[in-house]
Amino acid sequence: MRSQLTEFTNPAHARTRRATNQKIARATMQIALSEGVKSVTIEEVSRRSGVAKTTIYRRFHNSDELLKNISVLDVLPQLKIEQLAPTKANLELLIRTAVDFFDASVGVQSVGMILCSDSTFFKQIFDNLILPVRNYVAEFFENGIAAKAFTADTDTNFILEQVIGAMVAHAAVHGEVSAEWPGKMAALLWRSIAA
Predict the structure, then answer these.
(1) Where does 62-155 have alpha helices with state H?
(2) What residues have CB less than 8 Å from 56, skipping those under 6 apart?
(3) pLDDT score, position 178
(4) Could you give the number of structural domains in the chain?
(5) The domain containing residue 180 runs over which residues?
(6) Whether pTM exceeds 0.85
């Protein structure tokens, strides 16, 4: 009981725990993305993360529990951006923010794998990482339609699919999303949606 109380009252302990959780989560994601979910073991997570097996076992009884509860590690970043007015500059900012967000969390190339997988693990990552971004971007377009900045026939779902698909393809071909890609994508979209 005392160690739990210390965790909540000692900021240094909380930072250390969060850093350890991040190491565990990153290693788990790396293994799942590169070798498949079935390759995730406590031993391999320990080896890749540098976190002792005993520490991981204190948090999770086995790799199945780790995979099911990865979101409790609270290491997936949250998209933090205010709602934007429907302008071309803000469309570019929105696309750039989404690219940076995906790149910082799982890597842009991994987004395609997450979208294509039927694994419960990747479904959880989709729900916690990709879906909030998708919903935020959809809201931007819906607000633009309501404000008559975008054409009434703007198909939000189609646009989202095209942007994510193009982003993943660009990263796969070039190894990363280039700095000018968000601007080019925004310009392309703007021509087809501006009222």
Answers:
(1) 63-68, 88-105, 108-116, 120-125, 131-146
(2) 24, 42, 45, 46, 49, 66
(3) 94
(4) 2
(5) 88-193
(6) no
